[in-house]
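Hey, I'm writing a tutorial for new members on how sequence and structure tokens pair up, and I'd like a real worked example in the thread rather than a made-up one. If someone can provide the structure for the chain below, I'll link this post from the tutorial.
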Amino acid sequence: MTVLGTREGRSLVFTRTYAAPLDDVWAACTEPARLERWIGTWAGDPAAGEVRFRMTAEGDDVPEEVYDVELCEPPRRFVLRSREAAPFSEDGSGPRVHWRHTLELDESDGLTTLRFTQAVPEGPTGAAMVASVGPGWDYYLDRLTADLGGADVAGIDFEPYLERSEHYRALFG
């Protein structure tokens, strides 16, 4: 497994490699029942261009968000963008941003490489954003890794990930 949190343009990029077939990793990331095991669930019709996503690992009161499906090329790539801009800062106030996520998968020699990208705005908002979402995506991708490996995702504690916040902020500072 490789974890890479880095600056690429104005995006936060994570790369992980799994000893799993491409179709299995795609299913874990796109099928509601599989997705719910490590991050959340979605409803809707991606072919209609939108899905409603709700994170389930953060409690029962997390609101559902509508995402526009900008691109879906099974089983290799999809791009989603939150329909509504949300205020973002460490205290929940501040400029409004859209969440834009890209998932790309590639298989070679029996290994599937996942590349997850989150677009990040310029300036202090981007630095504050990665300080929060960097540890969060690290955590969720570790939960995906556990799920694909047949391990208990509930055994992964979020608290140690918070210590990585300044690492991510420094990448975009």
